């Protein structure tokens, strides 16, 4: 029982039934994960990045732990450039969760620690892509996700 269609190209996602729930295979963490609506968005979005935007599987980390103001937090996904420097944070929400200002504030807090030039927020139905604009000291919203070579 894999979950609802999303506003992303179809992806080959491996699912299996566990004793009391469905699991999805995360190729980045190389293990089976309990399938939740948010995890469904994550797995489909990561496949989109790899299959359609040229992102390198080995340069994406899911559930990346960071310390922020002495508290342990987890970024949903972090993308690294070829030198290992973080260049993008991605925050996922379940399809029924609207993308609000509060969600952007969450990812901006994570960016206090990582200082990346690209942010993505997605609930699988709506996707928002931002790039740091040094001239304006702010963020520009982009019409689509940049290819990996553009990071």
Structure summary:
The protein has 151 residues and is α+β, with helices and mostly antiparallel strands. It has helices at 37-53, 101-114, and strands at 15-17, 22-26, 31-34, 60-68, 71-80, 86-92, 118-122, 127-133, 138-142.
Report what the structure shows.
The structure is a single chain. The protein has 151 residues and is of the alpha+beta class. The chain has a six-stranded mixed sheet with strand order 4-5-6-7-8-9, with helices on both faces. A three-stranded antiparallel sheet has the order 1-2-3, covered by helices on one side. The chain has two helices and nine strands. It has helices at residues 37-53, 101-114, and strands at residues 15-17, 22-26, 31-34, 60-68, 71-80, 86-92, 118-122, 127-133, 138-142. The mean pLDDT is 95. The chain has one domain: tt1808, chain A (Alpha-Beta Complex), CATH 3.90.1570.
């Amino acid at each position: 029982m894999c979950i609802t269609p999303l506003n992303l190209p179809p992806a080959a996602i491996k699912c299996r039934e566990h004793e009391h729930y469905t699991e999805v295979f995360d190729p980045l963490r190389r293990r089976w994960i309990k399938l939740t609506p948010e995890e469904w968005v994550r797995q489909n979005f990561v496949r989109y990045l790899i299959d359609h935007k040229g992102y390198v599987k080995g340069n994406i980390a899911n559930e990346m732990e960071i310390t922020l103001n002495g508290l342990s937090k987890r970024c949903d996904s972090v993308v690294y450039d070829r030198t290992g420097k973080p260049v993008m944070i991605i925050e996922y929400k379940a399809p029924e969760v609207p993308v609000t200002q509060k969600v952007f504030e969450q990812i901006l807090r994570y960016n206090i620690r990582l200082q990346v030039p690209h942010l993505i927020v997605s609930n699988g139905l709506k996707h928002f892509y931002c790039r740091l604009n040094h001239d304006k000291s702010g963020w520009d919203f982009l019409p689509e996700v940049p290819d990996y070579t553009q990071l």
